[in-house]
Amino acid sequence: MADQLENTNPKLYKKVHEREITAEDEDEDVVDDFDSREIFDLIRNINDPEHPLTLEELNVVEQSLIEVDNKHNKVHVKFTPTIPHCSMATLIGLSIRVQLLRALPSRFKVNVEITPGTHASETAVNKQLADKERVAAALENNHLIEVINQCIAAKM
Amino acid sequence: MEVSASSSLTEKLSAALKNDNDLIKECQDIASDIEYGKLKLVIFVEELAPFLTDKNVTSRAQGTLALSTTLKHLSKDFLNENELNFITNFYCDRMKDQHEVIPSVLQGVLTIVQMSRLPQDSPARLLNLMFQHVHCQSQLQPIRKLIYLIFQTLLQNRKDALRSMGPDFIYGVISSIDGERDPRNLMLLFDMLPNFIQEFPLGHLTEEMFEVIACYFPVDFNSSASEAQTVTRDDLAYALAPCLYASPEFAEFCIPLIIERLDSSLRLAKLDSLYLLRKGASTYGASRLQPHLAELWPIIRKEVFPGGDIEMRNAGLETITELVKVLSTDDVIRDSFIEKVITDTKSSLCDVQLSLYWPAEKLLEAVAKANKLACAQVLKTFIPLCLGQYSTKTSYSDRVTLTESLNSLMAICEEQRFVINSVPELAWTDIPTLYLNALNTDNIELKLKTFSGLAILKSSLSDVARKLLYEKICMAVDDGNNQLKNTCHICLSTFAKIYPNEILGTVINQLAINDSNTDNTVFTHRLQALCAVAKIPELGPQILPNVVVVAMSNKLEKSIAALCCLRKLVAGRSDTFSIQHFLYKNCNIVELLVSADTSGCSTQKLNLIASICRSIVRKLDVKDQQQIVNKYVSILSEKLSESNVIVLEGLLTPLQRNVDIANKVNLLKNLLHLAINSVSSSSKEVSSKLISVLINKQTEDKNFLIVLNMLRDRIKNILEHDSNTELKESAILLNTWLTKALVVRGSQNSQEYLDFHINLLKDMEMGHNVANGFKTLSDRFEDTVTEENFCNVKLFYKQRIFQNVIQKNNDFDAQSRENYLMALTHLIEEVPMELLLMHLEPLIPLLIESMALDSSELILSTLVTLKVLLDTGHKIFHEQAQHFIPKLLSLTKRREMKVRTAALECLLHYANYPTVLILPFKTDVLERLAVAIDDRKRLVRSIAVKARTRWYLVGAPGEPKQS
C-alpha cells in the first residue's frame, strides 16, 4: 500500500436506492433472470482500498457498464478508475473479480475490464485481470487476499 | 461492687479477645455501659492496660482493637475534649508500635476524627505521626482504605486544622497515595482528590501531585468478569478526569499529556484524552490553552477529518465545540483559532461533491455551535460558499446537499437567537426568498429539505413570506405526494403554534372541507393536513366540529377518511389540549357514533367507530363512563346484532373496573350466542374479546363461577358433540379468549383452563386451530386485555403459559406432536428474550425437532425464531452447530422460497460465530451455497450471496473482527 493517498478528496456520487421488491419477485412460479442491476448490487458496496467509500460512491462501477447474457452465461463488467494514473486499478479489478467469483454461479464466464480510455496502462491491467493463472497466483498471496477481503467485507 | 464489676470485665475481655464476634458484642455492651454512666472510660482503659502494655505484640494489637471498637460504638458527641486529648495521646504513641498493631490504631483514629469535640491540634498530631511511622503502601488494601477514609473525614470537617499543617499535609497525602493499585481504593481517592486539590494551595508540590494522579491516565484496567458488582474501567476513567482538571495550574502538565496520548494509536487513550480536554478546557482557560493550540489542532483534526470512526469523530467534534467556547473569552485567540480551522477546511467546502465536504461541514458546524460570535465567523465564510454553489450547481442532488448544510447552519443560528442576514457582511443574503423560489421545483427531495428549512426559519420569516409559504404548503397538500406529506404537516403545525390566527384565516379557507364537490383524494389530503394542526388548542375547536360533520355524513369515502383522521387524533397524546374530552363534551361524538345507522356499514367503518369510542371512553372518568353505560348499553345489547356488537365492544372494553353494567349475565349470554353463531368472522372475534374483557374485570364470586360454567359448558358441548367445523372453530376461539382472560388475571381457575386448552392440542381435527390460538394468548401487540383498558394484568402470565407448555413436552406424540410444536413456536415468538434464554436447554431439541417435521408453516416460524436466538450468540448454539448447520443447509432446497430464505439467513447469522467452531463446516457450506446462489428466485439468491461471501471470510485473512 502506498503511504501517500493519490487522490485525497475524490468526488462523490449519489447511491442508488435499494432495489424495490415486485410482486413477481415474490411469486414462487416466476423464474427471475440475472440482470445488470443484480450484478451491480453484488459489487457496488465493495470498498475502495484507499478511502472509506464504496466503488459506487466513487462512480468506479456503474450499472450501465454491466452487461449480462443469461442465455450464454456471460457477464461483462467495465470499471472506471477515479484518476488515469490510479495505481489501485489492478487491485480494484481483482476485488470485483473475486467478489463475482464467489457470488455468481460457476456457469457464468465473467469478464472484468477497465472502461476504455480511462486509465494510462489500460491494456496491461486488462491482461492481468483476464489471465486466470495470474489471478489465481495473486489470490495465493496472503497479504493481497487480506486487503481484498477487507474491501469486500467492509459494507457487508 | 466496683471490684467485682471490673474483675468480671477483665475476665470477659480476655475471653472475648479470642473471638472476633464476641469482641464486637462485648465492646458494644461496654460502650453502652459507658454511655449510661455505669462504667467510666478511665476505668475501662485501666482495665485494658495489661493488654495494651503486654510484651506480646498480638495481645497489644487485640487490646488496642478492643479500645477502638468500643470507641466506635460510642456516639460521636459523647466524649469531651479532655478525654479525646487523652485518647489522641495514646494513639499517637501507638503509631510507633509494631506493624501488627497499626490496623487497630488506624481504626481508632478513624473513629475519633469523626468525633465532634476532638481538640483542634489532634488531627495535626495524629497525621504527623502517621506520616512518619506508617508507610501506607506497604499496608493491606483494607488498611490503606482506613487511611484514605481518615483523610476524607478530616477534609470534610477539619479543614482548618489541616491547613495549619501547611505543605506537610499535602506531602503526606501525596506520599500515601503514590502507587495505589486497588480499584476500590482508587475510586475513593478519585472521589476525594478534586476537592482536596481545589481547597489546598499545592505550591511547589503541584507537579508531584499531578504526576501521582496522571500515572493512571488513560485508565488501563479490566474488571474481572466474576466480580459483577465491582468497579469498571469506565467508572475509573470518569472519576479520574475531574482530578486531572481540578486545578488550572495542572494545565501546563496536563495539556502536553493529552497531546501525547491523542497522538498514540490506542483508541481508548484517544477517547479518554478528548473527554479530558473537553471537560478540562474551561478550568484551564483560553490563555493556558493558547500556547498548545498549534499542536492540538492538527491532532484533533486527524480524528474528525475525514473521521472514519464515528464515536471518535463525535467525541472530537464535541471537543472542538467546547474548546471554541473556552477560547471565546479572548477575541484574538478565538479569531485566530477559527481562522485556522476555516483555512484547513475551505478547499473541501468549495465543491459539495468532494468526499471531504461533509466532514468539513460537520467540523464548521461544531465550531459554530460554540456561541454567537464563533457562529458568525463561520457563517461569513461558509454562507457565501453555499450560496455561490447553489446558483452555479445545476444537479438536484447537489442542491439538496447545500440546502441541508444551510438548514443546519440556520438551526444553529436559531438556537443562538439571531438570523444570518443580521451579520453585517451577510446582510445581502436572502435565504427565505431563495427557498420560496426553490419550492417551484419538481424534485421532491429538494422540496422536502426546503420545507424543513423554512420551518427552521419560523420566527424570522416576514408576513409576506409566510403568506407565500402557506400557499405553497396548501398546494403541496392538494398534490398529495406521500413523501412530502409528513414534512408539510410538520411545517404547518410549526407555524400554527406561533401564528394560530394566520392559519385559521388563510389555511383553513384554502383547505376547505365543506365543499362536497371536492375530489375524494384531494379531500382526504386536506383532512389529514387539518388534523395535523388540530392538536393546537387555538385550532382544534375550530377544526374538529367540521371533521365530525364529515365523519357522520352519508358520503362513504369521505366519512371513512374523516373517521381515520379522528382515530389517529384520539389515539395520540396531546399535553395542551384534550381532544378526547373536547370531542365528547363539545361535539357529542359518542352519541353521534352510537346512533349512526350501522346496519349497512362496512366492517372497516364499524371498526373505526369502535376504535374511536375506545380511545375516548378510556380518557373519561368513572362518572362519565357510567353515564355512557347507562345511556347506551341497554339500547345496544337489547338488539345486539353482528354490527352493533362491534360498537358495543368499543364502548365497554375501556371501562374502569368499578363501572357497573346492568344485567351483565344477559349481556354475556347474548355475546356467547354471537361468538358461536355469528356469520361474520369479525363479529365472532369481537364478541369473544368482549367476553374476555368482561370476565377479566368481574369480581370472582358465585356469579362469576356460574357465568364461567355456562361458557365452558357451551364450549365443551360443541367440541364433544357437534360435527360442524365452523362451530368448533368458534368454540376454540372463544376458549382461547376465555383462557386468556383468566390466565392474565391469575384467577384461581386459570390453571384448570390452561390445562384444558393445552390438552385441546391433542384434538385431531381442531388441534391446529388451538395451536394458532397460542399466538393470541401471549400476543405482544394485543390491545384488548391490557392495563390501559383497566384489566387485571399479572406480571408474569406469559412466563406461566410458557412454562406450562414446556412441561407438557412428553404428553404429546405422533400426530399431536406437530400441533404442540406449533403452539410452542407461536409462544416463542411472543415471549420476552430473557425468558427464552432461561429455558434454552429444553427448547433447543424442540426447535431441531420442528425443523425435521414436514410442516412448512412450522419450519418457517421455527427458522424465524432461530434467527433471533442465534443473534444472542448463546453457548448452546456453539455446542449444537453440528445439528443446526447441516439441517439448515438441507432446508435451502425446500419448495417454499420463504423457507429457503429463512434458512439462508440463519446460516448467515451462524457465520458470525467463533471461527474455531464453524471452520470445520466452511467447505461444506460453500459447496452447498454454490447451488443456492443460482436459485430461481432473486430474493433467495440475494441472501444466499450474502451468506456465501460471508462464509468465504471465515478463517480467511481479513476476516471481520468478532465482537
UniProtKB/TrEMBL annotation, chain A:
Keyword field contains Cell membrane: no
SUPFAM superfamilies in UniProt: Fe-S cluster assembly (FSCA) domain-like
Gene3D superfamilies given in the database record: 6.10.250.1280, Fe-S cluster assembly (FSCA)
Transmembrane feature ranges: none
Residues in MIP18 family-like domain copies: 38-114
Keyword Protein biosynthesis on entry: no
Family: Belongs to the MIP18 family.
Protein name: MIP18 family protein galla-2
TrEMBL record, chain B:
Gene Ontology biological process terms from the UniProt entry: DNA repair; iron-sulfur cluster assembly; protein maturation
Keywords of this entry: Cytoplasm, Cytoskeleton, DNA damage, DNA repair, Nucleus, Repeat
Any one GO cellular component localisation term in the record: spindle
Compartments where found: Cytoplasm, Cytoskeleton, Spindle; Nucleus
Pfam families found in the cross-reference section: MMS19_C, MMS19_N
Residue ranges of every copy of the MMS19 N-terminal domain listed in the record: 45-305
Top-level lineage group: Eukaryota
Main location: cytoplasm
Coiled-coil positions: none
Domain (MMS19 C-terminal) ranges: 602-909
Role description: Key component of the cytosolic iron-sulfur protein assembly (CIA) complex, a multiprotein complex that mediates the incorporation of iron-sulfur cluster into apoproteins specifically involved in DNA metabolism and genomic integrity. In the CIA complex, MMS19 acts as an adapter between early-acting CIA components and a subset of cellular target iron-sulfur proteins.
Family per record: Belongs to the MET18/MMS19 family.
Subunit structure: Component of the CIA complex.
Listed name of the protein: MMS19 nucleotide excision repair protein
